[in-house]
Amino acid sequence: MKWPEVALGEVCQLNPRADNVSDDASVSFVGMADLDATAGLTLRCNMRRFGEVRRGYTTFRDGDILIAKITPCFENNKIGQARLQTPVGAGSTEFHVLRPQETLFDRYALHFLRQQRIRSQGELRMTGSAGQRRIPANYLSALTIPLPPLDEQRRIAAILDKADSLRMKYQQISTALAQVCSSIYIHMFGHPLHNPRGYLTVPLDQVGTLERGVSKHRPRNDPALLDGPYPLIQTGDVTRSGGYITKHCSTYSDLGLAQSKLWPAGTLCITIAANIAQTGILTFPACFPDSVVGFSADEATTLFVRTWFTFLQSTLEASAPQSAQRNINLEILRRLPVPLPSIHGRRGFADAQKSIQSQIEVVSRAAAFHDELFASLQSRAFQGEL
């Protein structure tokens, strides 16, 4: 069925003015890290006095749609709905806020915005340079959205919510299996932040080789660099990898490769911008930009270090400087002290981890199938085919 299409700006308020709230009132505070790119919701909220966040932050209401405007958060699907503990919230200045009006159901609008094509088109419309490129508000306001009757919008959103929930269950199983690796690590070596077995601590750059990704050409999204045969890994690919990078969303041409570098399969990728200290091991040769660091060592050590990072990730993210986009530098990684057991111990841990990984791969194949099914449902939903 063909429905009328309207500009999003006609049926939403974009970046509405702040609510009139008492300075002493408690409000929910949402940072960029608190918006879950997978679930499409705010998963954590800290409570702050409104007077502390009235200026210098973005304000919104419970139920508003938050859209990360800065790269690479937008491309990584940091688009979600505010689920707050209070009627009003405040958060990162790198959010666009979308407030659907009476004729647009909020969950229908959210699923529309979380389509891959919306993000791909938006990436081409970004303004600015280097790591400060942002989605302009007029890109969002000009987007045309099919507008069926409200009851139909609710029906479509309910179908997509259920399909998304099923897709998420497979990701939760993968996460639970990955946590088994952490449990085995603690059983074999103790918690790395406390080092109860008294292992010698070694700086990370002495455990293996660390190299920052390379992307010399400006602008980075020059079409001449892209759409060739060489895989290009971004921070989002690492974050979504589940520990092993098996797919990619972008590629470099020969020109793109010439201004970058091709890292071999087996390299551990570590993010140092946006999503801090997320890790994934390449299963194919690939390039990556300077928001990712490559760690190279023997297989057992690489697997050991990858799991070790899962214990440090939240600490490193919390300690990253508060700025438009959180980041840490290569020097911080180099100095990180690693409690290093013997190579025999690392190999035993690697064998156990590989056994669990084989189970994760079975679940991952099922998850990939449901990801594709969900993307197909999204596409059909907004073409009037559900």
Give a verbal description of the structure.
This protein starts with a strand and ends in a 5-residue tail after the last helix. The strands form 7 sheets. Strands 14-20-18-19-16 form a 5-stranded mixed beta sheet. It has a 4-stranded antiparallel beta sheet with strand order 2-11-8-9. It is built from 12 helices and 21 strands. The mean pLDDT is 90. The protein is 39% helix and 20% strand. With 386 residues, it is an alpha+beta fold.
Kindly summarize this structure in a few lines.
Helices cover 39% and strands 20% of the residues. It is of the alpha+beta class and 386 residues long.
The count of helical stretches stands at 12
Poorly predicted regions: none
Name the beta content range. 15-25%
Choose one word for the global shape: globular
The largest sheet has its strands arranged as: 14-20-18-19-16
Mean pLDDT: 90
Radius of gyration: 22 Å
Main sheet makeup: 5 strands, mixed
Lay out the secondary structure.
Layout lengths: L4 E3 H4 E3 L11 E5 L4 E2 L4 E2 L3 E4 H4 L4 E4 L3 E4 L10 E3 L6 E4 L3 E6 L5 H8 L2 H10 L11 H6 L1 E3 L3 H40 L11 E3 H4 L1 E4 L13 E7 L2 H5 L4 E2 L4 E3 L1 H5 L9 E4 L7 E4 L9 E5 L2 H21 L10 H6 L1 E3 L3 H39 L5
Parallel strand pairs: 3-10, 16-19
Antiparallel strand pairs: 1-12, 2-11, 3-6, 4-5, 7-10, 8-9, 8-11, 13-21, 14-20, 15-17, 18-19, 18-20
Helix pairs in contact: 6-12, 10-12
